[in-house]
Amino acid sequence: MSNDVQEYDENLTTLLEAIWGEGFLSPGGVSEVDRYLAGINLTNKYILDIGCGLGGVDIHLTRKHKAKKVVGIDVDPYLINKCDELARKYGVSERTEFLTVEPGPLVFDDQTFDIVTSKDSIIHIPDKQSLAIDIHRILQNAGWFVASDWLAGYNDEPSLQMQEYLIAEGLDFGLASAEQYHSALESAGFVDIQITDRNEWYKKQARYERTQLSGLLYDSLATSVGKEFLEHEIDVWDKMIIALDQGQLRPTHLRARKM
Q: Where are the domains of the chain?
């Protein structure tokens, strides 16, 4: 398999949903969403989801958390179409909106949203500083940025094993450290900044997922995505587990408030 940038195509999304649940392209599903949103009241709130993927977060925010409306944005029209399908399936189309956007500044007016969220998608946006400023701009006063993301456990160069994982993963990652995230949020004007590391949880969870890929899920996935693709993804998991064990890759919860 080449080292070209991997897209979230049908094969990859099928595999990730099999591991992480319907509508999810990152670990933990709805339970992890509830964990990073704990204590934040979403009832009747107007919410932006950056990098909405397959829409699992957005449907959950409307159905369980009673959000007034959730706007999900992504750069991939294929994913946006899947979001619309999921919203129709669960009858929340009137309370969700999914938009294909170009990379760059957020195309919303100042003080538009009560809450801005993102589940493990900001990793695809290299300029954390500009994004933090933009999120601060579009939030209402006293609004919250609450998210999870993949962070770098290093400030300079990744380890050889981390580099091998990134090459195998093949996605357009722009990782930053916890210190860089904190600095970006603080300089943008946010207060009450909280950064909660989830590495210990995911080190165990990733091993369980790896076992599922080569065990209970193997035959069905080999049929749906092909054996070659599945074997490649199992190799990605093997390399990711090493990076997690080294502390080079760190799943993390992020929270900050606009004054």
A: 10-258
CATH number of 10-258: 3.40.50.150
Both tokens of 22, joined, read 């319907």
**Global pTM value:** 0.95
Residues in a beta bridge with 122: none
**In the chain, where do the E strands start and end?**
46-50, 69-74, 96-100, 113-119, 139-152, 190-197, 249-258
Q: Tens of pLDDT along the chain (259 residues)?
A: 333 455 899 999 999 999 999 999 999 999 999 999 999 999 999 999 999 999 999 999 999 999 999 999 999 999 999 999 999 999 999 999 999 999 999 999 999 999 999 999 999 999 999 999 999 999 999 999 999 999 999 998 999 999 999 999 998 899 999 999 999 999 999 999 999 999 999 999 999 999 999 999 999 999 999 999 999 999 999 999 999 999 999 999 999 999 9
Q: How many CB atoms lie within 10 A of CB 123?
A: 21
